[in-house]
Every structure is written in C-alpha cells, then in structure tokens.
Amino acid sequence: MKLKGRAAIITGASQGLGAAIAERFAAEGASLALCSRHQAEIETKCRELLSLHPQAKIHAQAADVASEDQVDSLFAVAERELGHIDILVNNAGIYGPMGTLDAIDWSDWVKAIAINLNGSVYCARKAVALFKPNRYGKIINLSGGGATNPLPGISAYAASKAAIVRLTETLALEVQGFGIDVNAVAPGALATRLTDELIAAGPDKVGEAIHTRMVNIKQEGGTPLKLGAELCVYLASAESDGLTGRLIAAPWDPWPFTDSAKQEIASSDIYTLRRILPKDRGKVWGDR
User: What topology is assigned to 7-188+225-278 in CATH?
Assistant: First the structure.
C-alpha cells in the first residue's frame, strides 16, 4: 500500500474527481479527512468508502473552503481524529459564472475566486504550518484546462486555475528546505457535474467551441477519473519525493518519473508556466 500510515485532507470529496481520489487513497491505506460544502453528501460518501474499506479511518465534515473559520475547524478536527496530517489535496472548485466578463454577476465571480483560489491558498497555509515541524508533507493542487488555455465565458475558472499553478510553483520554492513537495494536477477533460453545468449554460454563454467540446466529452465519457486519482496517489506517496513545483497532466505526461527524469525536471522549467518568446517559435525580431 503506497499510502499506508499517511493521513490526508481532501477537499471537495463528495463526488466526481474528489470522490475518486478519496477512494484510491483509502485503497492505498491512507487515513482520510474528507470535506464538502454539503454535510449529507460527504457523510454518504464516507459510509460508501467505509463499506468498501472497513479497516480505513475516515472522517467526514462539512466545510466551505472559502470560509476561514470552517477550514480552521476542518484542520483542527482532522488532526484530532487522525492524529497527524501528511497530505493535502486541494480539489474543491467550481466553474463560477458563465458569460462574458461585462455580463456576469460580479458577486458570483468573486465567490468563484474565493473558493478556487483563496480556499486553496488558505488550506495550503494551514498545511504548511503542520508540515514544517515534521520537515515533510505533500500538497496537491487540482488545476485544469483553465491554467494553460484561455476560456472565454468562464473567466473566473480560467483565472483561478492559472493562479493555482503559479501558487504551486511559488509555494514549492518557499518550502523547499522543509521536505514539502507542492504540485498541481491537470486531470484531463472529465465528464462530471461541472461538465453538465457548461452544457446547460449553452453556447451563447460559454461559446460554441467550449460547448461543443463539452458535449463531445459527455458523449465519449472523457478522461477516466481513476487516472487523475492515481496521479494524486503517486504525488502523495514517497515515490514522488523531490518532485515539486510542477503542473503534471494525468493523461499526457509519462508519470511515474524515474529518478533521473526527476533530476532533469528539477533542473529545468519542464512542466511549468512560462512566457513564450519569439525565438521559441523560430522568430528573430531583435532584442531590446
């Protein structure tokens, strides 16, 4: 079992990818503290997991990651119930308002940033405080297509997911002397409730291209949830120790990485967000 003896907090764990991550973590021997904004949903998921893994230690708690008080309570109870925390999976997230920036509800846009970005930052802050004294820990941030591609009509999602990757890179450097690895995961195009929301919004709000893509993903099934969940297991395990500050794509990148590949990644800007220069595209426009 790759996570035996380890304890993890997983946010947004009642359904979709979060639930898949929780199931794989439980199967790999981890103790879990699971949260969702909806008490009934997270308790149901907890019971399902315990029926599959009766020996597992799993705590369920309602928590909105946009609320500092609720996150404080989540971490305090998780540490009390599990004894220690070694892993944080920042999975909670929403698409936010759909439509052009000038037409969407501003309060909904701010709310999406509060959940997707601020919630992840505050959870990471809490985790770092726990991990530093132990000089070890794993933080896994869920990113997505919004990190590397513009998504007109879903600007809050795109902006927050790009910010998550830069947060990952920055925090990884801040804690590099404490044995704490911080990585982001691009799980691929998933067929989840969020996909249904984009389809329901219609092409007038999210654009014809994105709407058509979501319909196709729904029909074809999308990237299997288990692929992103398995990548999270790898990044939470000792096997990935030293791999940090990267955006890893579950369906496209050749993980798990060999030790030599990890060394090459660490000494380069591979799997990071960077500005593309003219010379990168074979253009010579002169320098200032």
Answer: Rossmann fold (3.40.50)
